[in-house]
């Protein structure tokens, strides 16, 4: 997975098997649509999370288009713990880049990344 941030947008490019598993080649997110961008050593999603289309290998990978508490979400999460179809469930994703957006197809995007990539993109988000 590659992350390219320029002045106007953030592009997340999936490569190889990631494309097949995540059912997407690129996410091109306008900078103006991003409301928050953080890297979290352990992202916890509380509430329902339902895979609409994509891949799910429990404990290994969740990738694709999901519904998170009734809203669209895109996940490419390596080594997730838990899966929830109920309102009181919980899913934990280690080493997660978490992006929330407004006026973009996916209000929530969660992708696995390294701390270095997370720091670089967080700095990019804060500086623009």
Q: Overview of this structure, please?
A:
- This protein has 128 residues and is mainly β.
- It has two helices and nine strands.
- The protein has a six-stranded mixed beta sheet.
- Strand 8 (90-101) and strand 9 form a beta hairpin.
- The protein starts with a strand and ends with a helix.
- The relative contact order is 0.23.
- The model has no long low-confidence stretch (mean pLDDT 91).
Low-confidence stretches: none
* Overall 3D form: globular
N-to-C SSE string, H for helix and E for strand: EEHEEEEEEEH
Strand order of the largest sheet: 4-8-9-7-6-5
The total count of helices amounts to 2
Largest sheet: 6 strands, mixed
Taking all Cα atoms into account, the compactness measure Rg is 14 Å
Helix content: 10-25%
Helix/strand-derived category reads mainly beta
Our measurement of the CA-to-CA distance between the termini, rounded to an integer number of angstroms, reads 23 Å
The beta-strand count equals 9
> Residue-averaged pLDDT, rounded?
91
Strand content: over 45%
SSE arrangement:
Elements: E1 2-5, E2 9-13, H1 17-22, E3 26-30, E4 34-46, E5 49-57, E6 61-68, E7 71-78, E8 90-101, E9 108-112, H2 115-127
Parallel strand pairs: 7-9
Antiparallel strand pairs: 1-2, 2-3, 4-8, 5-6, 6-7, 8-9
């Amino acid at each position: 997975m590659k992350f390219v941030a320029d002045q106007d947008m953030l592009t997340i490019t999936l490569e190889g098997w990631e494309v097949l598993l995540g059912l997407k080649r690129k996410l091109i997110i306008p900078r103006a649509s991003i409301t928050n961008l953080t890297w979290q050593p352990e992202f916890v999603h509380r509430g329902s999370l339902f895979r609409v289309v994509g891949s799910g290998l429990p404990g290994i990978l969740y990738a694709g288009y999901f519904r998170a508490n009734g809203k669209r979400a895109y996940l490419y999460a390596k080594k997730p713990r838990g899966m929830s179809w109920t309102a009181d469930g919980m899913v934990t994703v280690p080493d997660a880049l978490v992006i929330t957006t407004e006026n973009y197809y996916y209000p929530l995007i969660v992708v696995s990344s390294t701390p270095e990539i997370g720091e670089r993109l967080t700095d990019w988000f804060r500086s623009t």
